[in-house]
Request: fold
Amino acid sequence: MKRIGLTGGIGSGKTYIAGILEKMGYPVYYSDAQSKALTDTHPLIREKLIARFGREIYTAQGLNRKVLAELIFASEEHRLFVNELIHPLVRNNFEHWCSEQRSPIVFNEAAILFETGAYRQFDGTLLVVAPLELRIERVMQRDRCSKKEVEERMKSQWSDDQKIPLATAVITSNGKFPLVSQIERSVQTLLSL
Reply:
């Protein structure tokens, strides 16, 4: 089974591409969704986050994501701590999920594969790229936030130019090039690894 990292900057369209892959019959593991579930339920994550940030980091509903986001976007040290705590547990969860799949290829959709070095743990990577202004516009509409807020979030991610040389296959999600044919070509490339 080929394990493929599916990534792209915020607003690139990677989750949309993941949905198309699923409709084509390929299993997709959503790292961000699983990470959110684990931060709400995993006792080690809860214990370590409370020890570092205090009890107010959790509410009765689970992790206080707004407070944590403010902390990690404001401090590289906090961001690294949280990533080093959560990413290995998500990776273990992904490996368990893979053991239950029966496909020749599976995808792990995650935002910061290159930035964390996690791309090295996969057989290949599929990078989704889009023009910066289009990405900003998509995120502003999706999250109902300002351009400045989107740009602030983008600061913790590498540019497409930094990621492209490391990617096995690249899909351009700009509304001009047909996505399905790009996906089909990419999957063939990835299957041949």
Remarks:
- The chain is about 55% helix and 15% strand.
